[in-house]
Sequence to fold (87 residues):
Amino acid sequence: MQTITLPSKCDRAAASALVPEMCDALGDHPVAVDAAKVERIGQAMLQLLVSAARTEGGIALTNPSEPFAAAVRLAGLEPVLIEEAAQ
Fold:
């Protein structure tokens, strides 16, 4: 399984820079997304992750930092990003 590591600052620029790597990695199998270093995450990165989670293979989140988990909860995206990734 390929792993993509999210940066500490997941803003629009980080999301834009990650799009090509994410597109290349997505396929039939889940892509591991390591969120351990995330200190701040914005809407653009959350949208990218939701989009990736809804692809055929989806994503498997690993090591979500507390700021990452808090942002996901605040945005109401746990069913998509946390619960679907755990299945």
Q: What stands out?
A: DSSP finds four helices and five strands in the chain. The CA atoms of residues 33 and 61 lie 5 Å apart. The longest helix spans residues 12-25.
